[in-house]
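Title: Comparing notes on inverse folding

I've been comparing how different people in this forum approach sequence design from structure. To keep things fair, I'm posting one structure and asking everyone to reply with a full sequence. Here's the target:
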């Protein structure tokens, strides 16, 4: 009992109360956007910098929890555990084993260890992972807290090892599933845009939660749902769990306080601000069920309607922001070519949405450069394709 009490004191001193290094992973090109989000949070330490692939920041453990809950454009939050030099397996085994893993993980948990290596003598990734897994289990058996709670056992843990020129960087994933999995949407669609990409598109297009949002080719409704969460001030991680729930430093009372503070800022609009439609009745039904289940009916209105039907979406005032992720390429079985489809979309936008802001996803820069719209273009990754996000005013 005295050993466990002493360990709890060490956890509080070195993990819960200590300022540590974290890294918010983002899609390429979204680093500065995520940095702005992070700096807007009430963190205990305002120290953050955008780097290639994400945002490095300093904070305490509750800042890590808040980042997971609130960040809309981050893919996952990593705790940077340690870094050291190792040129052979003996050095790797010893220095990795010297990390006080009992402060980070419960005994009995066998995390996934993912290894990347570049220009290193430790190039055999499978052998590295096996070496580290054995050393980790030995350390936890010797000094870890036994895990008797099935809630903790069920949680997925992941350690990321990055080796560059014999320098070993060790990180612990605090998120678990990628943060684009909000826990809001259980239905799918044909090549839907990821929630993190949709949130980034809304922010880059200058969307404000008091504006009208129109998504007339909504599919599974990712843009509409992201907009609805912004309007209601619901954090993107509100409905899901995280890997840090199964860390010895996690305290359910502290997490409840963080969520209660977020809930105090919830709001509902007086009238609907999001208007979406799709010509597929099944897509509309599934999205409608999701909206009703999460009590967003006062925020979102849905119509089963073809985008090219005369006029704007019924009951959609304006101007506001219109988002479009058209069913191009492999996502349509027949119909016009991509060029013809997007020419028709542009004609429709000019006719019925003049003065609206626009966020349009286009398959490739060649097509984007030929569209008759004067918009700002950014390369994005979408559904395994290199796409272009076009934003501006119609």
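Reply #1:
Here's my take.
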């Amino acid at each position: 009992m005295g050993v466990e009490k002493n360990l709890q004191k060490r956890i509080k001193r070195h993990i819960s109360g200590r300022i540590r290094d974290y890294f918010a992973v983002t899609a390429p090109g979204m680093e500065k956007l995520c940095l702005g989000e992070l700096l807007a949070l009430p963190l205990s330490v305002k120290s953050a910098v955008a780097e290639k692939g994400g945002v490095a920041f300093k904070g305490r453990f509750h800042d890590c929890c808040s980042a997971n809950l609130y960040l809309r454009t981050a893919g996952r939050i990593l705790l940077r555990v340690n870094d050291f030099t190792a040129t052979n397996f003996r050095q790797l085994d010893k220095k990795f084993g010297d990390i006080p893993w009992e402060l980070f993980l419960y005994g009995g948990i066998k995390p996934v260890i993912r290894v990347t290596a570049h220009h290193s003598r430790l190039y055999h990734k499978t052998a590295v992972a096996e070496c580290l897994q054995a050393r980790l289990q030995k350390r936890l058996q010797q000094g870890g807290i036994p895990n008797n709670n099935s809630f903790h056992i069920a949680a997925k843990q992941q350690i990321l090892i990055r080796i560059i020129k014999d320098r070993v960087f060790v990180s612990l994933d605090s998120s678990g599933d990628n943060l684009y999995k909000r826990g809001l949407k259980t239905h799918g669609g044909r090549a839907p845009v990821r929630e993190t990409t949709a949130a980034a598109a809304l922010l880059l297009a200058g969307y404000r939660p008091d504006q009208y949002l129109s998504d007339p080719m909504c599919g599974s409704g990712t843009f509409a749902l992201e907009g609805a969460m912004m309007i209601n001030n619901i954090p993107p991680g509100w409905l899901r769990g995280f890997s840090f729930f199964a860390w010895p430093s996690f305290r359910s009372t502290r997490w409840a306080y963080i969520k209660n503070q977020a809930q105090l800022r919830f709001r509902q609009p007086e009238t609907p601000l999001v208007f979406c439609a799709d010509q597929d009745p099944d897509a509309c039904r599934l999205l409608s069920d999701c909206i009703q289940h999460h009590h967003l009916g006062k925020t979102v209105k849905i119509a089963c309607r073809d985008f090219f039907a005369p006029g704007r979406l019924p009951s959609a005032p304006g101007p506001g922001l219109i988002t479009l992720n058209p069913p191009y390429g492999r996502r349509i079985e027949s119909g016009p070519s991509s060029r013809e489809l997007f020419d028709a979309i542009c004609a429709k936008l000019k006719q019925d949405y003049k003065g609206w802001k626009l966020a349009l996803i286009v398959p490739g820069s060649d097509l984007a450069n030929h569209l008759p719209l004067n918009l700002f273009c950014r390369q994005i990754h979408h559904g395994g394709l290199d796409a272009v996000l076009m934003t501006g005013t119609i």
